[in-house]
Amino acid sequence: xxxxxxxxxxxxxxxxxxxxxxxxxxxxxxxxxxxxxxxxxxxxxxxxxxxxxxxxxxxxxxxxxxxxxxxxxxxxxxxxxxxxxxxxxxxxxxxxxxxxxxxxxxxxxxxxxxxxxxxxxxxxxxxxxxxxxxxxxxxxxxxxxxxxxxxxxxxxxxxxxxxxxxxxxxxxxxxxxxxxxxxxxxxxxxxxxxxxxxxxxxxxxxxxxxxxxxxxxxxxxxxxxxxxxxxxxxxxxxxxxxxxxxxxxxxxxxxxxxxxxxxxxxxxxxxxxxxxxxxxxxxxxxxxxxxxxxxxxxxxxxxxxxxxxxxxxxxxxxxxxxxxxxxxxxxxxxxxxxxxxxxxxxxxxxxxxxxxxxxxxxxxxxxxxxxxxxxxxxxxxxxxxxxxxxxxxxxxxxxxxxxxxxxxxxxxxxxxxxxxxxxxxxxxxxxxxxxxxxxxxxxxxxxxxxxxxxxxxxxxxxxxxxxxxxxxxxxxxxxxxxxxxxxxxxxxxxxxxxxxxxxxxxxxxxxxxxxxxxxxxxxxxxxxxxxxxxxxxxxxxxxxxxxxxxxxxxxxxxxxxxxxxxxxxxxxxxxxxxxxxxxxxxxxxxxxxxxxxxxxxxxxxxxxxxxxxxxxxxxxxxxxxxxxxxxxxxxxxxxxxxxxxxxxxxxxxxxxxxxxxxxxxxxxxxxxxxxxxxxxxxxxxxxxxxxxxxxxxxxxxxxxxxxxxxxxxxxxxxxxxxxxxxxxxxxxxxxxxxxxxxxxxxxxxxxxxxxxxxxxxxxxxxxxxxxxxxxxxxxxxxxxxxxxxxxxxxxxxxxxxxxxxxxxxxxxxxxxxxxxxxxxxxxxxxxxxxxxxxxxxxxxxxxxxxxxxxxxxxxxxxxxxxxxxxxxxxxxxxxxxxxxxxxxxxxxxxxxxxxxxxxxxxxxxxxxxxxxxxxxxxxxxxxxxxxxxxxxxxxxxxxxxxxxxxxxxxxxxxxxxxxxxxxxxxxxxxxxxxxxxxxxxxxxxxxxxxxxxxxxxxxxxxxxxxxxxxxxxxxxxxxxxxxxxxxxxxxxxxxxxxxxxxxxxxxxxxxxxxxxxxxxxxxxxxxxxxxxxxxxxxxxxxxxxxxxxxxxxxxxxxxxxxxxxxxxxxxxxxxxxxxxxxxxxxxxxxxxxxxxxxxxxxxxxxxxxxxxxxxxxxxxxxxxxxxxxxxxxxxxxxxxxxxxxxxxxxxxxxxxxxxxxxxxxxxxxxxxxxxxxxxxxxxxxxxxxxxxxxxxxxxxxxxxxxxxxxxxxxxxxxxxxxxx
Length: 1268
Hints:
Elements: H1 4-11, H2 23-26, H3 86-94, H4 100-105, H5 125-136, H6 139-144, E1 152-160, H7 164-173, E2 177-182, E3 185-189, H8 195-204, E4 212-217, E5 234-235, E6 240-241, H9 245-250, H10 257-260, H11 270-274, H12 276-280, E7 289-294, E8 307-309, E9 313-314, E10 317-318, H13 327-336, E11 353-358, E12 366-367, H14 368-380, E13 385-388, H15 397-408, E14 412-416, E15 434-440, E16 458-461, E17 465-468, E18 474-477, H16 480-497, H17 503-512, H18 528-532, E19 540-544, E20 551-555, E21 558-562, E22 567-571, E23 576-580, E24 587-589, E25 592-595, E26 597-598, E27 603-604, E28 612-620, E29 626-636, E30 642-648, E31 652-654, E32 658-660, E33 662-667, E34 678-685, E35 693-694, E36 700-702, E37 711-720, E38 730-735, E39 742-745, E40 749-753, E41 757-759, E42 762-765, E43 776-780, E44 786-789, E45 792-795, E46 799-807, E47 814-822, E48 827-831, E49 835-836, E50 841-843, E51 845-849, E52 858-863, E53 869-871, E54 874-876, E55 886-892, E56 901-907, E57 913-917, E58 930-933, E59 939-945, E60 958-960, E61 962-966, E62 979-983, ...
Parallel strand pairs: 7-11, 7-13, 8-11, 13-14, 14-15, 15-16, 21-29, 31-38, 40-47, 49-56, 59-66, 68-76, 78-86
Antiparallel strand pairs: 1-3, 1-4, 2-3, 4-12, 5-6, 9-10, 17-18, 19-20, 19-22, 22-27, 23-26, 23-28, 24-25, 28-29, 30-33, 32-36, 34-37, 35-36, 37-38, 39-42, 41-45, 43-46, 44-45, 46-47, 48-51, 50-54, 52-55, 53-54, 55-56, 57-61, 58-59, 60-64, 62-65, 63-64, 65-66, 67-70, 69-74, 71-72, 71-75, 73-74, ...
């Protein structure tokens, strides 16, 4: 929907940041302010504490820390006594500090004494539209609910001004100083009024323009902990085939370490998820510039060779170039780290150029104005894709306008959804013309901390993604900050192939080709290969001048006219074009061209002058996807400039007979085919030839009869069709002679081989049997098979043709001979064993080349023991042939049939059996998964992997076998050359002539070694090929809620199911069986106790992975918790395949929650639009102490987030706060509900310990006037 995000933004001006800030940065009371920028892993620089900004200490721990803060009142944990914190919060968030009566009675006096615009200043239509947008978003009320100095810059307003004069006028209207004006964005410094007061005045007065606060954006933190688990294209000759991880690895000279071993925790699994390997077979994104608006990017990182850094100026403040926190460098590597350089990993678009734009100032803040300036700088510097893994706190129309301008300039903007784990609206992901990205984990389900909502367009991997770091090394980070650059990289790949694609088209393509995963993922998980695998469009045919290359005509179908020296050019999308010129439809099947040929450049039309060609062409895309077929007729003209006309035919003709004459017309340019049509006439004649006549179009000359002994003459002339050139007169003598009565050739049929010649002699007799010798004409019906000249036939190609000899005396007599041409042998190869036993026989085969050559051969024994004979290739060795003698045989084609061959073998002892083994030594590089042998020690079975997993030092995808022929006494025979290896299915497993076995894909095939000494002995090995398991990921059905406690809760009496996802880097794993196990530890501080055996009777884990806790464990669990010990239950899923890949999930065992409710008088509450209200609910679900209060995990959902939602970024202690640290009694929790627009919404709260208890708060959002 074109305006979908704008509508959502108008309806929901969410007061939240891109991710959950560290507790220390956000857990302050409303009157205090903190720094609002944090880096996902390392601690961000915090400005010095002043009266305006009091920044509590932060730690480097990955766990959230909580300041020592308690609510002012601790209400009793009873349903009747409910704390009412709404008065304070509501008062702070109304933002209504302007006297309405003043504005009504004295309209000429603006609120807060602001001078306003001159009275004669009339707002333009655009200014009025900006004003309406500001009012509809209730920017003043929204800003009043934020914290000055933490969520927006103090004393700073942003306005849009087309000119410097307009900016000055706006500044004077607000009694402010114009700090700067940059690309239409003016920054004003207020004097004497606050930002909220200025915004309120702007909304109420027609003499003030639209204005916005300068929001402070934040970097999303890591969305959760990660653990280190140990556990398009290569092309065929004809058709492109999708590239895989295996083929990429095999064909990359210096593969990147983080891409070589899919079992390593450092492996960049994101490439499997989005199918980067297949996409790289099509493009690496070269030629596309991707802007990274972030904390800066480290210069000279070994894996970021295609980096440009441009400094952003925010107002008058240069923001620098170097990475402030490491966040930007990590993001840049995900997009464009180099591929195939043997270092680190690779970006999604490794050929793209990274344009780094730092937006963090020296104090660690990120302002809207900096983000807007950076976006415009990116557009000016040629960025085609922009990634923003940073979030703002609220809607800003100026930011939206900058994004719209970027989209109009053809720039695609991608942004992270945030790590709140809620369905609250975040910016800039929530703006129109922005691709909002959700994060998924290895199981392809939404990562627990990822924000989501209807404004989320697509999803991408964002959990524990390895990339470049600002210390020059590599490391993992998690969050939508990592998922967003994955999508930006995919967009860059698509843009590199479709340079004219608009942002809307790129967005639509990524969504249309996304693959389905879990819920709340927008259109799904982006797939780079699918996005690039488009059906090619129909090609276009062009006729160009052969001399200048100028396009003369163009067509997508129909008929074109072309000069004889023109060129046919085909253009289209896809990997290549396939065409025919004879009207047949081009085709591909199973990766091979079955009709047509590749288009490699302009096609000369000179050979087709005077013909009409039916051209059919189609584009073949990546992966062999064929497009629609173009059908076009081309009429090729002949040359028009005639150079000469020559006549040929009999010089003597019988009187009264008809003679046939031919004309040859040539152009001024000898290579130019010209019209051969001529007009014949008699230019002169003897007196007795007055009745002679010639056909004007046929060239047939009819002569009158003459008396015996008389003769006459005729001169004939041929003129070109236009009459511009005529031939020289051709004189024909006409005599009264005896005509040819009979004509014959010495043979009616002859056979020969290509390259040979044969001479045909002709005999001609008159009616009395007397020899006559008039001129004759020789011709061949198929000159491509054989030609004839003066009776000499030259064989050219396999086939048959008719040679005709015609007497030219006017008698019309002809003689014919059928010539059959066979393909001569150019090379001949004899195949057979290297030895045969005495008394043995074997049929040798002779293979001739080229294809279609003669296949009949004469076999003979050139040398060997007496009695050795061969018939039709079958050689028989006499029983008394001495061991060690040699035998030489010969195969020869018929005489003239080409080359023959000889073959030599020896006489050896007879093979009684064949023994196969694997040669073993400590240095052997091979180690099959399994082997089996028969009682005689023969290898009979093998199991191999289809690929070589990275964790093994010895090869498990191939092995070298040895086969030995043995005599009847079990002794080895020295005639291993008589053995032949073969595979029943080489596509599964192949074998070379020397016994090297290589697995290719999952399946079963048999490797057979056969003795060729005539004994018929053979031995077979059954080879099973399996796809190995690279990694597995474990998904739990347990709700995690907002993760204030890092482990999911599981109560006694409840159960949870698990699902294992197998990575398919090596292909779909053959063995997907899982071994399930669990272990339980009690932990208190640094101490721990293994309680697995103690709790074995309370805990059950099925073979399908369903975990159950018995209800009678509740009291025991409670005892441990009251003793200060946490019970951590770890479920382990391990692959039964030999690699033993595994994953685990740890739960916190708790007593079941028995209560979750809201006080009766608080089940329905009223909140003013853009207001925030603190609400209390009660539950005895387990809570963990964090500083002076306790927290627990709950799930919060809104039935209508456009009306109201539970933001995470207002401070951890403001989301859920717990007191009454006594289990068995109700504890109370508080949360902040934020309203965005008028309406009704239900906020549902659910437990996460498996009890699935819930309660609902109905929010009715109305204005104060309506509430009263």
